[in-house]
Amino acid sequence: MNRDSRLSNVLHALLHMAEHEGPMTSETLALCMRTNPVVVRRTMGLLRDKGIVASARGKAGGWTIAADLAQISLRDLYDALGEPAIFAIGHRSDNPDCLVEQAVNAALGDAFAQAEAQLMTRFGAVSLADLAEDFARRHRQVRQHRD
């Protein structure tokens, strides 16, 4: 099953950017994310269109976060990415007149709608600042364990 990992990739990149002083190039972010710089540019372009990141060209150029981490929610990022499909499963629509298919689709549709609503509520409640703090806490724990 193919999974859409763009949201996870974007979060990964943004947390690296939050920890980095100055702009990060698409090439550097691609190394962090283990992807192609073209994928980084395409994805960051979507975030730039929403005012989440900014880009600068030239030798000292690259991508920077343009908004307050506390004001950027997972929902904002999900929306910026074009609202990728949440579920890999879906309805059958081979025979819309079939009463069994109608009953199954109604039950599944209701369950999917409820699950998606809960997920979107949760996405709206988690900010990049929350994730950055969680990362910082984990990093401190690792450093303390090593010392």
TrEMBL record:
Can you cite an annotated GO cellular component?
cytosol
What Gene Ontology molecular-function terms does this entry list? DNA-binding transcription factor activity
Question: Could you tell me which InterPro entries the record lists for this protein?
Answer: Tscrpt_reg_Rrf2, WH-like_DNA-bd_sf, WH_DNA-bd_sf
- Matches recorded under SUPFAM superfamilies: Winged helix' DNA-binding domain
The organism's place on the tree of life at top rank: Bacteria
Q: What is this protein called?
A: Transcriptional regulator
Q: Which organism is it from?
A: Pararhodobacter aggregans
